[in-house]
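Shipment paperwork, digital attachment
Item: protein structure file
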Amino acid sequence: MGSNGIKHVRVDERLIHGQVATMWTNTIKATRIMIVDDAVVKNDMEKMALKTAVPAGVKLSILTVKGAANNINNDKYVGQQVFLIVKSPHALRGLVDAGVELPQINVGNMSTKAGSRQVKKSVSVTDENLEDFDYLSRKGIKITAQMVPSEDAIEFASLLKNK
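Attachment content:
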């Protein structure tokens, strides 16, 4: 992906789980999983769960949007294979606003919640999510939806038509 060390970017509310820990991490040969979420940083229980879920031999960073942007922009991860995971596109918007280059985004899992509508199996979006995705798309970032590496990536915008 980019020269900043970021190999793959995924929106997945579940963060690190079976598909991420095994299939995705192996497929992209990640050496580091980076969770970017302001709330997770403050949640000791969630951080402990993530630390136990990360595959052996893979480093883990759990950072705020500001902290991640600072580290990435200061070339801290150059030479690494970073798998960046966020719960929502809003965190990615924050990274882009801070000058982080994200050439592509993969949307994996976004659960149904109040005010959301399903656009794909396991992907439901709110108006705020749509606004964030639209913003990222206007910045020239390719956005696809893909649950597992063996599944074909679908252009995310095509899922939003007629929805």
